[in-house]
Write a sequence for this structure.
């Protein structure tokens, strides 16, 4: 057989492998997390087999009052977003979801749940920023969490561009107790929560950020990868609203 | 070389093939992160209009989910692949018995390389990072200044090379070698 044909066969196999990866890939670890405990969890993930995408979505941790929730907790459609504060696409998508929430604010049909998914391989500062958001939540509740998060996404240039001093400035801007905030941030008390969120993102099939799961009232889940445009997210929300 | 392009692309059937192939590749690359979701929506019970609205609206992600660099090489790869396929078809129709597939192979490698680049647009999303992690080399992504965009640029070079090689083969006269 002509070697060119054999090579073409190889190319075809690679193409099939790529498409298979796209369709069926599940929970491989993408986030090289920072601490030793996180690294151990990451290694455990490396050793797990890759589940089918449909079963991977079922791994999504149920939304609870402990989550960071914007909108009505009982809304028929929930958007669970796994996000990295230094990812430029997450910055865009944050604005998109803000727009979605203002659109559906009156009807109360949509809830936005924010979970952390810092990809520290690419954005070393994102993990600490996630800790700062958690400290805002711990010190000021859900409202301060969202005020802090909105401000952070607003001012960060993304791609690791946020000066760490801004974490304190944002805390001051949203009216947190500065002494307690600095103590909280230094303690890294909420490291495990961020790790848990990231692990859950990976378990559900998240392979990059932003990674979102839209849950309809009947529990049907739709995974949405990337910073998709407002019209696409709105279409998907409307689609999910029909699932009862 | 210019003569070959004008000779081929001036013929309406070849121009159509080139445009249609480019569009198919472009749509595929933009939809790639959400192919399963698109299938779910398209096969749902809702009206045809609603089913079509979602995939069409996803095409807007070339603006929201791509950097300027990655959007540029995605469009370039789609166009070059369309031209490449058209030239290969033209070549095959003329010299079916003298197929040399170097150009074809390089063209496909260019597309695949481009796909790896595309995968990196959404902050390291799927293909490249997944592949590197499978190989236990996830941190290698840090060593790439464009975080995988290099593969998109490589894809353009491979497609250009493929077009060049195909054009050169088309230019060769059909002769019996001594």
């Amino acid at each position: 057989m002509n070697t060119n044909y054999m090579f073409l066969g190889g190319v075809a196999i690679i193409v099939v492998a790529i498409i298979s990866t796209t369709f069926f890939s599940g929970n491989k670890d993408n986030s090289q997390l920072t601490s030793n405990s996180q690294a151990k969890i990451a290694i455990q993930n490396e050793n797990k087999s890759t589940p089918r995408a449909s079963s991977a979505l079922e791994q999504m941790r149920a939304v609870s009052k402990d989550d960071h929730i914007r909108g009505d907790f009982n809304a028929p459609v929930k958007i669970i977003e796994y996000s990295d504060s230094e990812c430029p696409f997450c910055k865009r998508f944050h604005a998109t979801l803000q727009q979605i929430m203002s659109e559906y604010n009156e009807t109360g049909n949509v809830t936005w749940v924010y979970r952390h998914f810092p990809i520290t391989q690419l954005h070393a500062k994102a993990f600490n920023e996630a800790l700062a958001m958690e400290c805002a939540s711990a010190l000021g509740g859900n409202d301060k969490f969202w005020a802090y998060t909105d401000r952070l996404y607003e001012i960060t240039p993304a791609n690791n561009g946020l000066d760490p001093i801004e974490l304190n400035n944002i805390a001051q801007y949203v009216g947190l107790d500065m002494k307690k905030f600095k103590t909280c941030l230094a303690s890294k008390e909420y490291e495990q929560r961020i790790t848990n969120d990231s692990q859950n993102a990976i378990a559900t099939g998240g392979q990059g950020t932003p990674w979102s799961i839209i849950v309809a009232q009947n529990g049907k889940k739709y995974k949405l990868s990337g910073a998709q445009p407002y019209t696409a997210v709105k279409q998907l929300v409307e689609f999910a609203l029909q699932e009862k | 070389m210019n003569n070959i392009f004008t000779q081929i692309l001036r013929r309406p059937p070849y121009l159509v093939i080139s445009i249609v192939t480019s569009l198919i590749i472009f749509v595929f690359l933009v939809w790639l992160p959400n192919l399963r979701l698109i299938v779910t929506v398209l096969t749902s019970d809702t009206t045809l209009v609603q089913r079509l609205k979602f995939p069409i609206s996803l095409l807007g992600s070339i603006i929201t989910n791509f950097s300027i660099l990655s959007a540029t090489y995605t469009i370039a790869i789609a166009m070059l692949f369309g031209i490449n396929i058209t030239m290969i078809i033209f070549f095959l129709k003329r010299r079916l018995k003298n197929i040399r597939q170097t150009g074809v192979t390089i063209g496909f490698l260019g597309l695949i390389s481009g796909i790896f680049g595309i995968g990196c647009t959404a902050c390291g999303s799927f293909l490249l990072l997944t592949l590197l992690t499978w190989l236990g080399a996830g941190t290698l992504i840090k060593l790439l200044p464009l975080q995988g965009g290099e593969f998109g640029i490589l894809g353009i070079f491979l497609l250009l090379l493929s077009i060049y090689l195909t054009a050169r083969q088309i230019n060769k006269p059909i002769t019996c070698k001594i």
